[in-house]
Design a protein that fits this description.
Layout: E1 6-10, E2 13-17, E3 25-28, H1 31-51
Antiparallel strand pairs: 1-2, 2-3
């Protein structure tokens, strides 16, 4: 599966979350570190859902960029 990630600058670090997995979040000092921690968070999140007998949501978020005139 391929889940969308959102990573934002958060002061001195970066914060990330997975829109299709509410509560699945991570922070890191760099974008790459945040991505790595999100990968681990997703694995843990899905494992917990399986243990609890919850359905695993299919990825459904779409990520794109929109150019606007300022």
């Amino acid at each position: 599966m391929r889940y969308a990630l959102v990573i934002e600058k958060a002061g001195a670090n970066f914060s990330g979350y997975v829109p299709d997995l509410p509560g699945c979040v991570a922070t890191g000092t760099t974008v790459a570190e945040t991505e790595e921690f999100l990968r681990e968070a997703i694995a843990l999140h899905l494992s917990g859902m399986r243990e609890d007998g919850l359905p695993i949501p299919s990825p459904s978020s779409k990520v794109d960029y929109l150019d606007v005139l300022a």
